[in-house]
């Protein structure tokens, strides 16, 4: 039955490598694929599908670590290591600096996130949807920063953006033919998914110019056109004189992923949400709705957001995490703890 299909370990292994998942997770998939050991066939498969075709400028350091670990595991278990595996590792040793010291910690990497459609047989392919191992998958390439410090957090892939992307793909009817506006768009993953489900207009924003530039590159990398970009520092745009600019966007759906993180930003965020969620006669139709995905790392900060939103912003917040089913498009992302993400539906109180 199509509905009971499970992505094979070979497919999950390849997707994990391209997404630069932790090496130990890749090794587990490789063992599963080989029936308990990393056989010569498994090695050939990895070489053909990942190593030979890799972009060494942006993926080389990760692959160097992967090759080292693969060779070590195979030798430790008494297996046969293919000559090309040694050769590829030597090539990466010569041509690349160590992963932890490249570009003074300011380097970029190219991650490829594959959304595997659960239980779907891939009978055809069209453009950015490709068939692989009997499954349909939607591929997104993202240039990300390896530096989690020094203001580069907007160029990283966060769990909430992965969950929001799965939510969009699980419920395309919410976003199709709608004007969608995202706050804190980061690497642009959500924007790519909105374009994929045929949103009529996609508006992406961020308060950091470096993040905004990287986001534009990622949308171009995925051949996504007709996207609008806004430099949107919350503390400036939350003032009443700037609300008209926000009203002019006329969004139907507002999205945010991992935007509740700093109590100092909460008042500005609430004012922004209130401004775009309340039509207040600025344009006809029903009030928009917002979907905010968040990992609650600090309960006090989240409670602060809820309190300010409901008391000062005139907003109603509903936790829909358990109501709207979100399909698992990313079974191979072992580093992604989807159960830690909450999805909130936010509306303006009429």
TrEMBL record:
It holds the Pfam family Methyltransf_16. Transmembrane segments: none annotated. InterPro entries: Methyltransf_16, SAM-dependent_MTases_sf. PANTHER family: HEPATOCELLULAR CARCINOMA-ASSOCIATED ANTIGEN (PTHR14614), PROTEIN-LYSINE N-METHYLTRANSFERASE EEF2KMT (PTHR14614:SF130). This is FAM86 N-terminal domain-containing protein.
């Amino acid at each position: 039955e199509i509905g009971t299909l499970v992505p094979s370990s070979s497919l999950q292994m390849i997707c994990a490598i391209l997404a630069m998942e932790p090496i130990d997770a890749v090794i587990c998939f490789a063992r599963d694929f080989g029936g308990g050991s990393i056989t010569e066939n498994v090695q050939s498969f990895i070489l053909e599908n990942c190593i030979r075709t890799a972009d060494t400028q942006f993926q080389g350091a990760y692959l160097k670590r992967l090759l080292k670990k693969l060779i070590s595991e195979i030798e430790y278990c008494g297996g046969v290591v293919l000559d090309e595996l040694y050769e590829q590792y030597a090539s990466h040793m010569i041509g690349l600096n160590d992963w932890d010291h490249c570009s003074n910690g300011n380097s970029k990497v190219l991650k490829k996130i594959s959304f595997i459609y659960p239980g779907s047989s891939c009978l055809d392919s069209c453009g950015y949807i490709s068939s692989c191992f009997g499954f349909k998958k939607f591929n997104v390439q993202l240039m990300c920063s390896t530096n989690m410090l020094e203001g580069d957090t907007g160029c990283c892939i966060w769990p909430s953006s992965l969950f929001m992307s799965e939510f969009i793909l699980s419920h395309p009817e919410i976003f199709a033919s709608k004007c969608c506006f995202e706050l804190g768009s980061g690497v642009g993953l959500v924007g790519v998914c909105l374009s994929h489900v045929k949103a009529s207009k996609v508006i992406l924003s961020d308060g950091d110019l470096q993040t905004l530039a990287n986001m534009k590159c990622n949308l171009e990398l995925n051949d996504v056109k007709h996207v609008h970009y806004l430099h949107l520092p919350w503390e400036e745009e939350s003032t009443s004189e700037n609300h008209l600019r926000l009203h002019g966007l006329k969004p139907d759906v507002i999205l945010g992923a991992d935007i509740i993180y700093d109590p100092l930003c909460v008042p500005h965020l609430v004012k922004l949400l209130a401004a775009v969620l309340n039509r207040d006669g600025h344009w006809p139709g029903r009030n928009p709705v917002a979907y905010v995905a968040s990992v609650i790392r600090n309960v006090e900060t989240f409670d602060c957001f809820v309190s300010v939103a409901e008391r000062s912003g005139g907003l109603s917040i509903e936790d829909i995490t358990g109501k709207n089913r979100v399909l698992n498009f990313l079974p191979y992302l072992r580093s992604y703890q989807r159960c830690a993400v909450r999805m909130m539906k936010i509306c303006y109180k009429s």
